[in-house]
Records
---
Amino acid sequence: MRIGILQTGHAPESLRAAYGDYPDMFTHLLAGHGFDFVTHDVEAMDFPASPLDAGGWLITGSRHGVYEDHPFIPPLEGFICAAMEASVPVVGICFGHQIIARALGGQVEKFADGWAVGPTDYRIEGRTYRLNAWHQDQVLRPPEGARTVGCNDFCAHAALIYDDRAFSVQSHPEFDRGFIVGLMQTRAPGLVPEPVLAEARARLDLPTDSNAMAARIARFFTERR
């Protein structure tokens, strides 16, 4: 099955030699599940010709906010709607989670209570997943037709499902410990408050459930429709 990765941003250049860019992380995360991958850098306006060009679509994270004025955001929202109308499954991660919700009429904003960083526990579909987080923006109101299937005390809509058409999570199962440390060194200064970073550092060695979430994402892509 071919998965099209819709790349909406880039990892910090200083970290790419060690960790790759976002499509590399997802290729690694979903390795062993029978997929091959094609990447479209939609941030650079490289869009697929049709939602039918792949068996499923995965929307990456980004440093951008979905409510910001960037040329790629309106056509990406249109592509999401077209893919869902064509019953091609869509998975969204962080920014991807938010842009699916916004494309369908949900509300996304900077969360007044601040940032989530590092290993974070979420209750998703009846089980606890510990996954790396890196976000301030949140889905504050899901769109009509979305069902909240994941949350914690900080993030009320941490995972959403749209029947068999889309599945999205606010967390970053593709980020490992080293990459989170790298983000704390490169993107956090002056942006993320030090007490949040200190709490994250104290949790960095906790194991995560990235492989379990990868299996959940793979099942979503391969479910009979």
Note: The mean pLDDT is 97.
---
Amino acid sequence: MAQRAHGNNQPVVCLLSTHPLLLDEFTRKLEKAHFTAKAFRLRQVFFEDMNRLAIPSASVYVVDGHDPFAAVLVGSLVKRFPDSRVIVLSEKFTEANAFPLLELGAKGLLDYSEASQHLPDAVKTVAEGGYWVEPQLLSRFTDSVVHSARRRSVKARPRRLSPREREVLE
């Protein structure tokens, strides 16, 4: 179940980054918007065992995507906290870096410049079950997933059925 702040209908948000200034800035922005924000400073060598990290429970996790291991962190958070949502912050999102994050279960992708203004809105939207991804990027991602599923479906179909296979199918 998604965690809510006591006496508050806003979701609890956990920010994860190796950068203390980013944590401070975005914690202040979220608290100003009446969210309960928990900053969790990651260490560069923390990826040895993700499950041993004392990451606080939250309904939304905001991950600093600048780290080269951000995708590992997103995948781990989605598995460890299946009822929570994940938003990733980065310098810029392209198909090459966004699609793997979406495939892992990220629900929001924000450029740092966009996060300065829209992070509270993105957290609210994602916490309510929506996506916060640039519409054209989300559309291209959806098209790629559909196209991939069609390709697998076509490959999975046998070209010709034997008489016995047709009999079983009928």
Note: The first helix runs from residue 20 to 32.
---
Amino acid sequence: MTKPRKTRTDSTDNLRRIFAAADKELAPPAHVPLSDASWPFFHSIVDERAKADWTPHTLEVAALLARTMAQLEFEQRLQRVEGYVIERENGTSVQNPRNRVVSALAGQVLAMRRSLALTGRAKAGGRTEDAARQRDANRAIEQNARPSGNRPDLLA
């Protein structure tokens, strides 16, 4: 059994799909609420792809990633103030326990980023270069669609 062919990035169907979603506002699902500190991370994450390329599940992962990145930033800020090595009351020096927390959060961030990239690779036929090329092309099409508001006649 053969796989169905992927839609070409420059095809009419793909352009129609990208243009239809270009003005859509992306938001995390209601069951993954974001704090004020998480929102800038969420916007940065969803700007990585064209809006048409986001699914409900990838938006969930993006929201979880944004929350984790905000927590990581908070912990790193405290770690910088406290230092990597702290002094106990008895005068001995020990590694700051926050180092483990920061390391665990950084690992979670990387794992979630890989999860989002895996979805892109799977949709693009399994090759990282193909996924990146398709993601960049779709993003460029979306950017060109937004500012001028001009839609090609093919969408009429």
Note: Confidence is low (pLDDT under 50) at residues 149-156.
---
Amino acid sequence: MHSHATLRFAELSRRSDREIDVAEGALWIAAEQYPDLDVDLYLARLDAVADTIRPQVARGSTPLERVELFNQAFFEVEGFSGNQAAFDDPRNSFLNEVIDRRTGIPITLAIVYVEVARRVGLRAS
């Protein structure tokens, strides 16, 4: 028998590429390890990060300035960074942990980065 998380991930994977929210998929994967994970709550947390960053990004008058402002807000203000002290920590691979701890490995940080950038209107794919 498949878990709820597995069924939701399978459902998500049947969508067209344009309809797939990569963060949602990564959270359903994490829900296999964290059965009580509230996926909608973590998607809302990504929305909240985007809401915080959006006004800063809007100050940029060129695409390059907007990306630079996004990077400053994402890495310096919001504090996202690579986990250099414990790269092999399994929590680095679960998106909920990366959102909570603001640290992860390149692939999970990239998911958060791209999804937050998309939410503020930047194309980061």
Note: The beta strands are 81-82, 103-104.
